[in-house]
Design goal:
Blueprint (H helix, E strand, L loop, with lengths): L15 H38 L8 E5 L8 H8 L12 H8 L5 E9 L3 E8 L4 E3 L6 E3 L5 E3 L12 E3 L17 H12 L4 E7 L5 E8 L5 E7 L3 H17 L6 E3 L7 E2 L1
Parallel strand pairs: 1-3, 4-7, 7-8, 10-11
Antiparallel strand pairs: 2-3, 4-5, 5-6, 8-9, 9-10, 11-12
């Protein structure tokens, strides 16, 4: 019997044409998607121009300002400060830029702005609160709790009995918009008395000597002023010590009014 010999079937090598066609289809798909994305962006831009930036009905006619203080209702001042002109399209104005520029004003702590269609820009302003006079109580310069210098002409109404920061060298460089880091301990003392030690009323606080505060302080709105010298650090502890000292002196009817708190944990009366 003749042997059945099977001739092995030779597979044809895979042609590179199919691989190339797949790559071409992939590239064409990417190009089509890219073209579609471009068309969508162009249509969006054209639609935005038609509906917003090119819309004749969305032009600025009115500016409103809401604030609990000096800036309330001062749309003219805000428009002048930001260079806003009637007739500009609302969507040609960058709200973030307007907000940042408004917040550069010394008396403005935080600002918010929104478009109110069809023709209004609405501002809401949070103002800095003056906490002390600078130099003397007839000065036009005031400072807030972080040492920002403001003008009395453009800030919230103030009480004439605000404390006075003294010992700061007078200079043309000290003007509204400048922060004074050297007075921060004095501002901390004033704010502690206002918030936590309300039985103390500072009249003046001197920052003449670095690291030290010299203050004139009234106790329980009394007429007798106490001259107090203290470190510019650990102010809360200093005020606790001062309170104990004054209470003891009043109980003993001690007439002395000069108190030195520079001795650690002790108060020396003179």
């Amino acid at each position: 019997m003749a042997e059945n010999t099977k001739t092995p079937v030779r597979r044809k090598p895979t042609s590179g044409k199919k691989g190339l066609s797949r790559r071409w289809r992939f590239l064409l798909s990417l190009l089509a998607l890219g073209a579609l994305a471009v068309i969508v962006v162009v249509l969006f831009k054209l639609t935005s121009i038609f509906l917003f930036t090119g819309n004749e009905h969305l032009k600025l006619k009115k500016v409103t300002v809401i604030s609990p203080g000096w800036w309330n209702g001062r749309s003219t001042e805000v428009s002048k400060l930001l260079g806003l002109s009637p007739g500009v399209n609302l969507f040609d104005l960058e709200l973030k830029d307007l907000r940042k520029r408004l917040e550069t004003h010394p008396s403005i702590k935080k600002a918010y702005v929104a478009r109110v269609l069809p023709d209004t820009l609405a501002f809401k302003v949070s103002e800095r609160i003056p906490r002390a006079f600078l130099f003397d109580n007839s000065s036009k310069l005031l400072v807030d709790d972080v040492g920002m210098v403001m003008s009395q002409d453009s800030c919230v109404a103030i009480a004439r009995d605000l404390p006075v920061i003294i010992g700061v060298p007078r200079s043309p460089d000290i003007k509204p918009g400048r922060k004074l880091p050297d007075i921060l301990p004095a501002m901390q003392l004033i704010m502690l008395c206002r918030m936590d030690f309300t039985d103390f009323t500072p009249a003046t606080v001197s920052v003449r000597f670095p690291g030290k505060l010299n203050a004139i302080i009234h106790y329980r709105n009394g007429s007798r002023p106490y001259k107090v010298s203290m470190s510019a650090t650990n102010l809360r502890e200093m005020l606790f010590t001062l309170r104990s000292c004054i209470i003891r002196a009043r109980r003993l009817e001690d007439p002395r009014t000069s108190i030195d708190l520079n001795y650690k944990g002790q108060a020396v009366m003179r």
